[in-house]
Every structure is written in structure tokens, then in C-alpha cells.
Specification:
- This protein has about 130 residues and is α+β, with helices and mostly antiparallel strands.
- The protein has two domains: about 5-40, no CATH class; about 45-134, no CATH class.
- It contains three helices and nine strands; from the N terminus they run H-H-H-E-E-E-E-E-E-E-E-E.
- It has helices at about 5-10, 15-20, 30-40; strands spanning about 45, 55-60, 65-75, 80-90, 95, 110, 120, 125, 130-134.
- A hairpin with a 5-residue loop joins strand 2 and strand 3.
- The longest helix has 11 residues, at about 30-40.
């Protein structure tokens, strides 16, 4: 499944350049930012958030935007689907698992919200912002 690495490969640029372009970093030229964002638009909405899969992305578009990738999915003891998020910041040398501060008993796992937003320590996503590479 394509990732930021896939965008980098398809555009023949570094992974860190892709990350900086998605974060509207001043060191990245407009043409590169436009190319990265055009390719990033190939992400399509996940129509049923309960169908979440590793590699799916919660993406907040814009400048600055942000993305968190679903690293893993599991079923807990109650039979609920839970997932783990990862994110990185510039320079793209740090990719880390995102803690769940809203429910520390299951952290670093998250549940799909029945209603309302997905709250992470620094970003809030609507479940409609869950995307998948097509």
C-alpha cells in the first residue's frame, strides 16, 4: 500500500522533502509543494470508518496540514476494532507512535469514535478525514 515513501518514489524526491512539502516548509519550492499535494489527493475517503486498515491516513488538508497513519489494527477483548497511529515531524527523522491521552487505559490504541471527533494529543480529526490510497 503506498505511503509517503511511495509519493517520494513516484516524484523522485526524498521522504523528508515530501514531509516538508506537506507541512508547507519555507525551504520547499512551490512546484514541489504542488506536485506533492496533487499526488496526496489520490487519497480517497474511507466510506465506513469501521473498515479501517493499516496504511490508512487521517489527513487534515491545508497549509499547514497534518497526517497520521494507521500503523496497526486489532480486535480487543470486547470485540471492538482498535487502531494505533504514527506521525512524524520535520525534519522527518522522528516517526513515533501517538499516545492516546483521552483513554490511557488502552493507549497507544484508539477506538473509532461512535460520534464526534478523533482526539489526539495535538490534532483533532473528523472520522470523515480517514483516507486510503486507491
Amino acid at each position: 500500500m503506498p505511503t509517503i515513501k511511495e509519493i517520494a518514489r513516484r516524484l523522485n524526491i526524498s521522504i523528508s522533502t515530501v514531509s516538508r512539502a506537506l507541512h508547507d516548509h519555507h525551504s520547499i519550492g512551490l512546484k514541489t509543494k504542488m506536485s506533492v499535494n496533487k499526488l496526496a489527493k489520490e487519497l480517497k475517503p474511507v466510506s465506513n470508518s469501521n473498515d479501517i486498515q493499516p496504511g490508512d491516513v487521517f489527513i487534515k488538508p491545508g497549509f499547514p496540514g497534518h497526517a497520521m497513519m494507521v500503523a496497526d489494527v486489532a480486535i480487543n477483548r470486547e470485540g471492538e476494532k482498535i487502531f494505533m497511529l504514527v506521525q512524524g515531524y520535520m525534519p522527518a527523522q522522528d516517526i513515533h507512535i501517538v499516545k492516546n491521552l483521552e483513554n490511557e487505559e488502552i493507549s497507544p490504541w484508539y477506538k473509532i469514535p461512535a460520534s464526534g471527533p478523533l482526539v489526539t494529543p495535538e490534532w483533532i480529526f473528523d472520522v470523515r478525514q480517514l483516507k486510503r490510497w486507491q
